[in-house]
């Protein structure tokens, strides 16, 4: 396979760093789109000439077109865009503020949307490319305490499903990655945003909040193995639209699908009865 050029947001840590290292190990070129360019200095030294850096906060919509043009000017193409930058949010629906929810939507939805739009014209012109959306099992199912987080990931998944159908004829693939709990910085205090609590919801939300914060470093998933799974999916003859990674996520998504199917079957007669006679 010819050398590819990857543009990866949030490449300084977590999944982004693991994906960058996997791509570099495969002989590809990586452009890290990060808020702190100096965070990539070690990879630049290990892979001279194959690591580029562009300064980018994905919530800054005015900066995105220029960042993409910088990558295209330097490398001529972007073969794989990975929308990875993100953070967690814990809070009951009533606890989560508009500011918190809108900020996370900018990071998890509007930023990736703007980046994808900026990259698509060059991919269409070449007739090839891939867009990798780093979502979550929380983009397939939700539970108390993660409503805001799941809302952003559900939005990205729905948008990406439509996108996949629209660009398939141009040779562009879309991969929505849905991890479970992995040993990244996701649960760390710098990444996990916690809404101000209300005593009315303590019984439900406190275990979620404490479980995420207290479980940091104990997650079952290996981010390097997730990165390898992503490269395998992109190399497949038929890249899946959804890639669930981590045994915990596979179990949770499977159980959620079973519940959804059972509920649909139970109420199918009522639903069909709503047609015009």
TrEMBL record:
Record's keyword terms, sorted: Oxidoreductase
Domain of life: Bacteria
UniProt key word Mitochondrion: no
Stored InterPro entries: NAD(P)-bd_dom_sf (IPR036291), Sc_DH/Rdtase_CS (IPR020904), SDR_fam (IPR002347), SDR_oxidoreductase (IPR051911)
Pfam name, any one: adh_short
Gene Ontology MF terms in the entry: oxidoreductase activity
Family under the similarity heading: Belongs to the short-chain dehydrogenases/reductases (SDR) family.
Xref: PANTHER family: SHORT CHAIN DEHYDROGENASE, SHORT-CHAIN DEHYDROGENASE_REDUCTASE FAMILY PROTEIN
Name the UniProt record assigns to this protein: SDR family NAD(P)-dependent oxidoreductase
Organism per entry: Nakamurella alba
